[in-house]
Amino acid sequence: MALIAIASDKGAPGVTTAALALAAVWPRPVLLAECDPAGGDLVYRFPAAGGGHLDPRRGVLSLAVVARRGMQPRQVWEHTQKLHGGLDVLAGVTNAEQGAGLSLLWGPIGKILAALPQADVIADCGRLGADGPLYDLLAEATTVVLVTKVHVADVIRLRDRAAAFAAAAASRGRRGFGVGVVVVANHKKLRAALGEVQQVLSQVNAPATVLGGIAHDVKGADLLAGEWGGNLDRTLLIKTAREVAQHLLVGLPPIASPAAPRPPAMNPEPVPSSAVPSSAVPPSAVPPSAVPPSAVPPSAVPPSAVPPSAVPLSAVPLSAVPPSAVPPSAVPSGAFSRVLGTRSARHAQGPASPAPPGPGQASWMPDPAADQEPAGPSMGSSRPGGG
To answer: Would 25 be classed as within a structural domain?
Structure first.
């Protein structure tokens, strides 16, 4: 129903961490999609629902093969997998060479994910560079969120990247499409950091709005990864991620009950095969076994039940509804049934229950060291630069 793209510029930490945390607390059905052309990490970090390994051939690669011939958005579910605990994921490419082979397909993939029935999509898009194929996917998103630290160099790069993205989106027909900003900082200084970043962006009229902040919480990230014991729901990482989720939910249309009949008028148009040349995915990049057999029963594909009168996502800007309009109850405190168990027990447990999301306990999160960089001077530091 909505495509939320999470990305960053050079030097900004926590894109994967932020995407995973938001998916863990998201109060609506959600799919976590790895759309980083440099390669994803889920297949290396987390077990599948049955305790085994995720299949790296089933995900963006297999989806791209089918997209060449044209496909319906509901077919995306045939290429997803479940992490232990029940979170639906679309595994990404495993290296930059595979990502380069999909350069002409990121736009069609974005269009398909944006029209996915009965679920929102949170896409981990990694680090952005100059205008390129990945911007085709970003231009299809409902909201683009850039993650940044509060160091001087990071905020300056964020300002420039926001302007570059707005220009790239305008060239693709999305005029006035700005970005949301999520700041990663020490929790004690988080409120001040948000004000400093917003002040810098406002001074130059950058097309960006600060949505909120996520606490730099190493222990919370370790808890999600199963490295520690404790109550994950009480960590600063999850508490602040839930607040950001409240801002992102503002303006999104409701997701109807899966039991409701699917209106024929809402059947999305397939992506025409003429839009994707046969050379977009070289045969060497995708082995014949990349496309898994159609083993997903029809009941596993949630029906689309959004009425034709639903408000278009592009018609609701981030600033249209104040954050106060979303009560705290809109994001339940116990939204961790998608991820279960501790590190010592998660491999021993059986497949996750297919029951609807409810209170539970999370246990997965990427290694925070993978996204962190040496500390540099903050916005309040007397030394410029850093990074």
So the answer is: yes
- CB distance 83 to 48 below 8 Å: yes
Contact assessment for residue 10 and residue 20, using Cβ atoms and an 8 Å cutoff: no
Q: Are the C-beta atoms of residues 223 and 234 closer than 8 Å to each other?
A: no
| pLDDT of 11 | 65
**Domain count along the chain:** 1
Q: CA of 150: how far to CAs of 193, 215, 243, in Å?
A: 6, 12, 19
In a domain, 376, yes or no: no
Q: What is the CATH number of the domain that holds 118?
A: 3.40.50.300
Burial class (CB in 10 A: 0-12, 13-18, 19+), 326: middle
Predicted structure pTM score: 0.69
Written as six digits, the tokens of 57 are 């051939």
Q: How far is 154 from 60, CA to CA, in rounded Å?
A: 30
260 domain residue, yes or no: yes
Residue 119, pLDDT > 70, answer: yes
Question: Rounded mean pLDDT of the chain?
Answer: 73
3-state secondary structure of 215: strand
Q: What is the pLDDT of residue 197?
A: 92
Q: Does some domain include residue 384? A: no
